[in-house]
């Protein structure tokens, strides 16, 4: 008996416990801490992140060989979250360890496992990814490099790190971006890099939340709601990608969380977590970055004014202010495309805009720069274009692409 | 589950005699000298925090009861509790000089040795005690604590098993709780793998449940309180055995085996009805129609391809049939090479409607896309024709 717990449980946990044992991993986010040892059943909807925090607490107790306390907590956890399959699995292990030595995490007897083995594998993977995200925390205060500059209008930002099955929610404060919460997520059954309709992959890139769908109008399958994003974006369309209906959405009634690779391309978040996101973020102005790996950097290393792109943007603004169409046209890529309008179709629009400014210099307000690098180098630029003396102007969005040491605009349009 | 045999409990065990001898003031079944709380025995797991979780049995239980000739033990125990180990040892040694075989004082001596950091000597003391009084669980328990402290978990386990075996009741309770834990674990695993998620529409999961509970379904037993010995075998496979308390009988009646009755939990999992042969044919016919459609597409045979669609076909974007046909023709005929291969077909037929889901591997020129697709077909004049086409599930 002693041996079974000794070697059985610590075997599957040792890696995590040593790291988590320091207690730093979760201490960061006060949301994730449960003050209540045994939450009251009558409590309202569970808070975001609570179920995972309680699961990790159980892992930690197992790591400390306090299996009795771990079992008590797992019993309470599965009572409060009966559809949290991973919690049920750990609870099963803790019970099973009282009867025989455990060989591995999720030591379901073969005669019971049968064709549940696929699911068991998924639960193991979910466990590993949750732990990976908690072990490999972003350095304190760091931000994804893709968020080169956010405007005060971007009150929040979302970044998805698929390699850790994690969604990070940021608040854009006066002193910069602050990570306020992060959650386990699921992506497409066949992984990432969506290219075509029905390919069951999740797109990679920078997107925006376009709307919010009322759960009452949705099937139960989508849980507590959905936030569609603008896949395919301009860059995706340029690359001939197809499909659509990529949402951040909740989980069905019978599944507290879904396996890491589960959706048809959507990003799936547990309902309490999604509810928190829905309550928090603003539609249309919240960027959603989806990457294989996030590139975390210190915010001060992102110096938008000195970024080489900024010189190009300023030069474009100067050209537009000057009213010289020849100068201005140089900033536009030959493959420019606005919903089918080619550069030749677009130049008259530009000419009109220049004429309307009547020689008043133009200014950029509320600039946001989202920098997406894959095989190409793309800048998604959003700003208010305001003529001197005016108080407001159109909100513009441009997609720039690096071509050698030049940056060219391949999309431009008015949003909002 | 294992039932306690009444036979063994009937005779006065050496252990009980022992306790009587060291607590002359109490009745033979009185307050035990050493707390034999069985929960201390099986619940011992630890690595770094061995001393925290493995409990050493140390003190003379409720000492206040031992007033008569137990002064010596009380004194030693109090010194122990006050952490005055050398003094306690001196007292124990002087007592043992006159009564070298006294098990209670030897036991206390072992505890003192352990507290003085003399692990090896403590092990010797407890080992000798287990040899002289193999019926006592407490020395085995303390041996286990010492072995576990040295990382000798194999020896610790053996010692704990011996402790449990000293009393057949412990052993049975221990085995029983093991069975209960196993049953609870099995329930948790079922929930983890969603084998009992209430989603009774999924046949493989149903099959699993049936497999698991088969013995009961095949041969349900009526609830009974009569002593049915075969109930024990049913218990092993019952998902939720209801155990009525053993009928309390004097321990002196060896024939009175405790009685357990088992109520098999009523399982609602009805066997999945096998599709009728006619339906099987319909499935085959619908799948054949879908394969023919994929073949026509691969062959760029527009007549056959478009012919696979019903006149009622729900065109994407509600465009006119003619516009859709033109669009499809342009897209298909324009390619130099097309290959459409289907896999993972799953088909549901309901009346003259069939839903066929599959994975479609589409290759055209340099493009290669694998996607999920669902076709809804309707039977028109004995022909399965597509009425709706959608990607994803």
Task: Please describe what this structure looks like.
With 416 residues, chain A is an alpha+beta fold. Chain A has helices at 2-20, 24-27, 50-63, 67-80, 85-96, 110-113, 117-135, 234-238, 271-280, 308-322, 325-329, 343-357, and strands at 143-144, 147-149, 156-161, 166-173, 176-188, 205-208, 226-228, 247-249, 261-263, 267-269, 287-291, 296-297, 362-373, 377-387, 394-403, 406-415. Chain A has three domains: 2-135, no CATH class; 143-300, Beta Barrel (L,D-transpeptidase catalytic domain-like), CATH 2.40.440; 303-415, Nuclear Transport Factor 2, Chain: A, CATH 3.10.450. In chain A, strands 3, 4, 5, 6, 7, 8, 9, 10 and 11 form a nine-stranded mixed sheet that branches. Chain A has a five-stranded antiparallel sheet with strand order 2-13-14-15-16, with helices on one face. In chain A, helix 1 crosses helix 3 (50-63) and helix 3 (50-63) packs antiparallel against helix 4 (67-80). The N and C termini of chain A lie far apart (65 Å). Residues 1-42 of chain A have low confidence and may be disordered. With 393 residues, chain B is an alpha+beta fold. Residues 1-52, 59-68 and 197-276 of chain B have low confidence and may be disordered. Chain B has a four-stranded antiparallel sheet with strand order 1-2-3-4. Chain B folds into three domains: 6-170, Alpha Horseshoe (Serine Threonine Protein Phosphatase 5, Tetratricopeptide repeat); 193-223, no CATH class; 277-391, Nuclear Transport Factor 2, Chain: A (Roll). Chain B is 47% helix and 12% strand. At the A-B interface, helix 1, helix 4, helix 5 and helix 7 of A face helix 9, helix 10, helix 11 and strand 3 of B.
